[in-house]
Amino acid sequence: MKKIGVLTSGGDAPGMNAAIRAVVRKSIYHGIEIYGIKNGFQGLIDGYIEKMNTGSVGDIIQRGGTILHSARSEEFKYDEGQQKGIEQMKKHGIEGLIVIGGDGSFRGAQKLTEKGYPCIGIPGTIDNDIAGTDFTIGFDTALNTVIEAIDKIRDTASSHERTFIIEVMGRDAGDLALWAGLADGAESILIPEKKDEFEEVIDRLKRGQERGKKHSIIILAEGVGDAFDYADKIKEKADLETRVTVLGHIQRGGSPSAADRVLASRLGAQAVELLLSDEAGKMAGIQNNKLVRHNIADVLEEKHTIDFNMYQLSKELSI
Ligand code: F6P
């Protein structure tokens, strides 16, 4: 292979820039030409393709977001869009592609690989919801952003003796809520993987009241339901004044943590190695702090799950 491409796709995540930097520099190290594709798969269809060099990725390792920009492309979900993408790459002589993103992005990479166009996936999403890797790029930074916010909310919750629901991202995955809840000693954690726990939350709040507990923090993953509805239910069932904070997209921004920069650098470099070793259709991941590779098809089929032992622990520690 003499020319390869890289793109970021789906929701952005802190550390994507560090991954792009590693892909670009590792390619140049191997004497390979490297092309950046802007705006994800949509940019590929539209031909937003530019040659990159060492300088293109200078001074970006510490920056959040993605210099290649990102998008969710409807057109690329279909055969016609994928063919257009392949045509663009052929036009530029690009022989393989590295895709940094979450499961939706991996579906696109898998489709291209099945059409004979080699792709490698790098897991980049704050959701940490990709099978075959212990961590995705961006999760650690987002977690620290959430923790910082909860610490602040805890101060005012304590002063005013209030219950707070803090909504964090995670449509289908509860990792961010679970890790944040455990790290911040939240009284309750509501996650999509355990949707029927609300009555238990009410019981815990009531038990807390009986013990004279004055404030509580409940972490809710967005996929569970509307935080304001839950606040109303708490008022109704436990007679507790409850405030809601929705953290929103603040969780996706910011300078990546050291852990995310290191992870992104390792996975970015490994992705180039995989592409050059003809390991088409693989994802570069990390398990037990060792670099691993898995078929993207298996990763998509397997589905990520939360650590239920951790979930149980969070309950045991917030009795
Ligand atoms: O990046 C993943 C994610 O953060 C999900 O947790 C969330 O539901 C979604 O993206 C929201 O993304 P957007 O607002 O960009 O559609």
TrEMBL record:
<dbReference type="InterPro" id="IPR035966">
    <property type="entry name" value="PKF_sf"/>
</dbReference>
<dbReference type="Pfam" id="PF00365">
    <property type="entry name" value="PFK"/>
</dbReference>
<dbReference type="GO" id="GO:0003872">
    <property type="term" value="F:6-phosphofructokinase activity"/>
</dbReference>
<feature type="binding site">
    <location>
        <position position="162"/>
    </location>
    <ligand>
        <name>substrate</name>
    </ligand>
</feature>
<dbReference type="InterPro" id="IPR022953">
    <property type="entry name" value="ATP_PFK"/>
</dbReference>
<keyword id="KW-0808">Transferase</keyword>
<feature type="active site" description="Proton acceptor">
    <location>
        <position position="127"/>
    </location>
</feature>
<protein>
    <recommendedName>
        <fullName>ATP-dependent 6-phosphofructokinase</fullName>
        <ecNumber>2.7.1.11</ecNumber>
    </recommendedName>
</protein>
<keyword id="KW-0324">Glycolysis</keyword>
<feature type="binding site" description="in other chain">
    <location>
        <begin position="169"/>
        <end position="171"/>
    </location>
    <ligand>
        <name>substrate</name>
    </ligand>
</feature>
<feature type="binding site" description="in other chain">
    <location>
        <position position="211"/>
    </location>
    <ligand>
        <name>ADP</name>
    </ligand>
</feature>
<keyword id="KW-0460">Magnesium</keyword>
<feature type="binding site" description="in other chain">
    <location>
        <begin position="185"/>
        <end position="187"/>
    </location>
    <ligand>
        <name>ADP</name>
    </ligand>
</feature>
<keyword id="KW-0479">Metal-binding</keyword>
<feature type="binding site" description="in other chain">
    <location>
        <position position="222"/>
    </location>
    <ligand>
        <name>substrate</name>
    </ligand>
</feature>
<dbReference type="InterPro" id="IPR012828">
    <property type="entry name" value="PFKA_ATP_prok"/>
</dbReference>
<feature type="binding site">
    <location>
        <begin position="72"/>
        <end position="73"/>
    </location>
    <ligand>
        <name>ATP</name>
    </ligand>
</feature>
<feature type="binding site">
    <location>
        <begin position="102"/>
        <end position="105"/>
    </location>
    <ligand>
        <name>ATP</name>
    </ligand>
</feature>
<feature type="binding site">
    <location>
        <position position="11"/>
    </location>
    <ligand>
        <name>ATP</name>
    </ligand>
</feature>
<feature type="domain" description="Phosphofructokinase">
    <location>
        <begin position="3"/>
        <end position="275"/>
    </location>
</feature>
<keyword id="KW-0021">Allosteric enzyme</keyword>
<feature type="binding site">
    <location>
        <position position="243"/>
    </location>
    <ligand>
        <name>substrate</name>
    </ligand>
</feature>
<keyword id="KW-0418">Kinase</keyword>
<comment type="pathway">
    <text>Carbohydrate degradation; glycolysis; D-glyceraldehyde 3-phosphate and glycerone phosphate from D-glucose: step 3/4.</text>
</comment>
<feature type="binding site">
    <location>
        <position position="103"/>
    </location>
    <ligand>
        <name>Mg(2+)</name>
    </ligand>
</feature>
<feature type="binding site" description="in other chain">
    <location>
        <position position="154"/>
    </location>
    <ligand>
        <name>ADP</name>
    </ligand>
</feature>
<keyword id="KW-0547">Nucleotide-binding</keyword>
<comment type="function">
    <text>Catalyzes the phosphorylation of D-fructose 6-phosphate to fructose 1,6-bisphosphate by ATP, the first committing step of glycolysis.</text>
</comment>
<dbReference type="InterPro" id="IPR012003">
    <property type="entry name" value="ATP_PFK_prok-type"/>
</dbReference>
<feature type="binding site" description="in other chain">
    <location>
        <begin position="249"/>
        <end position="252"/>
    </location>
    <ligand>
        <name>substrate</name>
    </ligand>
</feature>
<dbReference type="InterPro" id="IPR000023">
    <property type="entry name" value="Phosphofructokinase_dom"/>
</dbReference>
<comment type="subunit">
    <text>Homotetramer.</text>
</comment>
<feature type="binding site">
    <location>
        <begin position="21"/>
        <end position="25"/>
    </location>
    <ligand>
        <name>ADP</name>
    </ligand>
</feature>
<feature type="binding site" description="in other chain">
    <location>
        <begin position="125"/>
        <end position="127"/>
    </location>
    <ligand>
        <name>substrate</name>
    </ligand>
</feature>
<keyword id="KW-0963">Cytoplasm</keyword>
<feature type="binding site" description="in other chain">
    <location>
        <begin position="213"/>
        <end position="215"/>
    </location>
    <ligand>
        <name>ADP</name>
    </ligand>
</feature>
<dbReference type="InterPro" id="IPR015912">
    <property type="entry name" value="Phosphofructokinase_CS"/>
</dbReference>
<comment type="similarity">
    <text>Belongs to the phosphofructokinase type A (PFKA) family. ATP-dependent PFK group I subfamily. Prokaryotic clade 'B1' sub-subfamily.</text>
</comment>
<keyword id="KW-0067">ATP-binding</keyword>
